[in-house]
Amino acid sequence: MFLELKNTAIGYKTPLIKGVETSLDLGDICLLIGNNGVGKTTLIKSILHQISTLKGEIILGDKNIKNLSNKQIAEQIAVVFSKAPIPSNFTMIDLISLGKYIHYPYYFELNSADKEEVDEIIENLNLRQYRNFSLNQLSDGNLQKAFIGRALAQNSPMIILDEPTTHLDEENKIIILKLLRKLAKNQNKCILFSSHDWRLSKEFADKMWFIHNEKLEAGITEDILLKHDELLNPQLFHIDKEFIPPHIFAPSLEKEMLYSFLQKNFSKNLSAYKFEWKGTFWLISNHNFQQNCDSFADISRLIKNLH
């Protein structure tokens, strides 16, 4: 295994994650998920040895991470954090080329092969028209892609990305995730990336690390998701104490939309009613009436007439 965590406790003074036993190999692409504050970024910083583990070991390429220098770790792992300082007076091509200098002194001139690789990365990220733009001229999304490009240029066997699709629209999210999967499979790289956008990200990740209840659960992405209804089913937030929802029988998306619509518009007890999604319309009923509604506007008029 390329990366191993052995009975590891992650945190600062007290553990955020305990008893971590997991590993990743070259060619793996793993999605890291969990709510804010559970320790995703702390876990990444521990793997990079930016903070020390509270217990256990992290093994990188058969060596304990504690015995590796920062340069040795950087040669093995390229990293992209969601918030990174922007180098002043750099163009986009300068930033991406910077990834090459983990292998050279700062004064070294990149050779033609290096420059061709940088150009290929720019092309793959769909950034060609921005190659000579100042970083301050780039949108948040293109700046994020440029930082990812720097990590790709580093050519390390592992890439870790903390929320790499932040600021990106759907098209660019897919570009990034497809590129990460291609790197994992075609160039035998180990990819670990965190994301809140897991519904899209799961299409590209073979494995999942799910942090919850101070534990890290690891496995095949689909196995982890099927064990946890809270990941698959949208949460229905109750923000109005006077609103009591009806009984809703519908697929999760339609149920979520109806719940949202009713709670925003009706601060009242609707528990006597049953709403059933019939594919193209809602069937609303209680003990003494039944009616079809084709839209939320129809539902709104019905409830107002009933109350």
UniProtKB/TrEMBL annotation:
UniProt xrefs under InterPro entries: AAA+_ATPase, ABC_transporter-like_ATP-bd, Metal_Ion_Import_ABC, P-loop_NTPase
Alphabetically ordered keywords of this record: ATP-binding, Nucleotide-binding, Transport
Domain ABC transporter: residue ranges: 1-238
Pfam families: ABC_tran
UniProt-recorded Gene Ontology molecular function terms: ATP binding; ATP hydrolysis activity
Name of the protein this chain belongs to: ABC transporter
